[in-house]
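Hi V.,

You were right to ask for the full record rather than a summary. Here it is.
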Amino acid sequence: MLKKLIILPFIMLMMTACGNEDTEALQKQNPEPKVDDVENDNGQTDESDTETKEPVKPNTNAASGSKAGKVNFQSIIPSEWGIKLPTDFPVNKGKYLTAIAGTKKNLATFKFYATDKPLDLNDPNIKNSGELVGQLVITNHPTVKSASEEIDQTVFSEGEAVDLGYGITGYQDAGAGSLFTSWNEGRWSIMARSTTEKSEESLKTAKETVKFLETHMLPIPKQYGQLHIDAKQKGSLAKWQKQKNVYTLTDFGDNTLKWLVTFE
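Predicted structure:
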């Protein structure tokens, strides 16, 4: 009986030791995930799983000194001139608009270019890699009177009357190998030109211009504006007055009207 009492505790001790060894072996086969300490906003330490993240790359699609590829054309204009340029100049899809620009005395000049990638104002690569879109010149006059003297203020009423549609009457006149169809809209004097050999193009261009202006607004001149649309689009010109400032658009070809209506 005494032997049984001595042997029984010994057997129980051996079973406990074996159980501990099995537990340690299981822990080695399935270790718990490692937890790093992360300090929170309050200076306390939280536990969170470690995670590998890709570094965030900076946006390199914007031109130097501009935002999201937008060039700040307004920066060229002296603030005392009181001019606000449009921010939605038209440019073909996939192209970027920039300019060779500057101010000298009373003139601000912009030669606009379309490029395949963003280029800042006056970037040395503009001429080599860009395509000329057109030119804007703003002249700051000493007086409103001297500014108004630059603008054709003709009210057309002479020549052969032609119907341009939308209740507008134009007047045709020929001279020096050209045929002109002229009319007024508000304080704008407008003229469409073609050669006399293709005289029908003058009237066609005039009607197309009137139709376009039915859904698009010309800048409001103070006091006058003039628009010359060439049927071949080579000599198109827009010029209008805003108090002491005179705006002139040239070399925009068939985009002349699209650019003109972006101004207020």
